[in-house]
Amino acid sequence: MSRPDVASGQGGHPGANPFLPEWEYVPDGEPHVFGDRVYLYGSHDRFGAPIFCVGDYVCWSAPVDDLAAWREEGVIYRRGQDSANRLGLRLLFAPDVARGADGRYYLFYAFDFMGTIGVAVCDSPAGRYEYLGRVHYPDGTPYGRRAGDGFAFDPAVLVDDDGRVWLYSGFRTPVPALATGGVRTASDGAYVLELAPDMLTVREGQRLLMATDDPAFLGHGFFEASSIRKLDGRYVFVYSSVANHELCYATSSRPDGGFAYGGVLVSIGDVGLPGHPDEAHGTNYLGNTHGSLLRLGQRTYVFYHRQTNRSSYARQACAERLVADGRGGWLQAEVTTSGLTGTLPGVGTYQARLACNLWSADGVGRVDGPHPRRALAAHPFLTQEGRGRGARQYVGNLRDGAVCGFKYLDLSQTRGIRLVARGRGAGVVEVSDDAGFSRLLGTVDVCAAGRAWADFAAALEPAGPRSALYLRHRGGGRLDLLEFELLA
Predict the structure, then answer these.
(1) What is the DSSP letter of 126?
(2) What DSSP string runs through 209-275?
(3) What is the pLDDT of residues 335-355, one digit of tens each?
(4) Is pLDDT at 474 greater than 90 in this prediction?
(5) Do 312 and 355 belong to one domain?
(6) Do residue 312 and residue 362 come from a single domain?
(7) How distant, in Å, are the alpha carbons of 82, 154, 169, 173, 176 from that of 151?
């Protein structure tokens, strides 16, 4: 039985990014429509964990006509259910789900760097899946255990209109043979193979779908995170590129080859958008992202994940609506706070964790670089206090020149702001609708001295009906920001 709808805890604005509750960390999102609901499958991080994907698989769902009403479906598969992981020591990386010809639902997954693909099955999209077996050749050899096999990683599956089943996977970085049982596998791109209707047996051997270093992909070659959709009669392959902070796509008229580069769908630091030509000019801290596309009626959304806690191990689900580029593809989406909801109201309380832009006076950095906590010690970051469902997220370590950005809100009737902050520092928080702070809407005097949260308020000049809101700390010490309230 599914659970009641769970309030997302976005300060009264469900559907804003990240669109799941602040205590939930579901990266690698694969949204699928089954019946009248969207089901979101992904891996499962935990705040403060030392590595990726330490949790069992959970599922969330929402009505197709209300992407703000996400419901917790609970645990759908535990890592110890697989016969190769009875002790539960292996980690469940990014999965995918497809409905088979028999009407049942098939969950495809890879245990961390084990190099094979497991399959579980269930009679309902968000029920309790049961272990079925491992993708294998007709002689029983698991895919990924023959010399020359592609490295079985981040599986994606498509049951086509003609009933044929296609499995996609791959990884760019060379994998030690020790991780694949002593077998040397290929890690030079994305691979596709056909499965039999049993969803387990390889019907036709693998083909290289796209090489990592293919010059036709303009420096956006394949790294990981295979995902596949069929939209408007064509096949759209979504993947994380070698830049490792963006989702890109390629399209073809057939499922097993001929894919041409389409472009960037989203970068978690807006790299590639006007004014942000490279990582040095990013709008947010960079690291891996993984996700896919969702088509609902005439609208197409890209799902992705963001990083928190100055690490790659506490990632959260976000989504943006895509805009058609007039050539059959899409323009790169801008990372926003409003996400699935459209423009947010200019009156009400917002949690600081909804910041879509975050940088220090020295710009941004990568959370997946060497020693990120030390390298980013002077930078602001998203973090939390408390554990489990009682956690509260906030923006920590705002030093002089640090900026939080929120997009997009209707500020046409906004006349004031109240900040909830703490820390040890004094100065002002400048408020602007411009990232360069060429025009100030107001300034808030702040004097924080300790662990207790305190209120600080000021009047604001109104701005436009669809505006960004930027907060910049100017002064000594450092601040933490829990929330802000916009006042009429």
Answers:
(1) T
(2) EEETT-GGGTT--EEEEEEEEEETTEEEEEEEETTSSEEEEEEESBTTB--EEEEEEEETT-TTSTT
(3) 999 999 989 999 999 999 999
(4) yes
(5) no
(6) no
(7) 19, 9, 7, 10, 11
d(CA 447, CA 444): 10
Let me know whether 352 and 222 are in one domain.
no
Spatial separation of the C-alpha atoms in residues 172 and 279, rounded to whole Å: 21
- Please say if the pLDDT value at position 27 is more than 90: yes
The amino acid sitting at 37 is R
pLDDT-based confidence at residue 5 (cuts at 50, 70, 90): very low
pTM: 0.96
| Burial of 180 from C-beta contacts in 10 A (0-12 / 13-18 / 19+) | buried
The helix (H) or strand (E) run that includes residue 372 is helix 372-375
Q: What are phi and psi of 222, to 5 degrees?
A: -65, 135
Give yes or no for residue 178 having a pLDDT over 70.
no
Q: Are 93 and 154 in contact (CB under 8 A)?
A: yes
For the annotated catalytic residues, the residue numbers are 28, 224
Cα–Cα dist 425/415, whole Å: 26
Better-predicted residue by pLDDT, 302 or 11: 302
Residue 1 has pLDDT above 60, yes or no: no
Residue with tokens 């050749």: 137
- 483 lies in which domain range? 348-487
Residues 153-179 as b or e (16 or more Cβ within 10 Å = b): bbbbbbbeeeebbbbbbbbbeebeeee
Is residue 133 domain-shared with residue 178, that is, in the same domain? yes
Label residue 11 by pLDDT band (50, 70, 90). low
pLDDT level of residue 121 (50, 70, 90 thresholds):
very high
In the block, which residue shows the tokens 């996609």? 168
For 211, phi then psi, to 5°, come to -85, 145
Q: Are residues 292 and 209 in the same domain?
A: yes
Contact of 314 with 307, CB cutoff 8 Å: yes
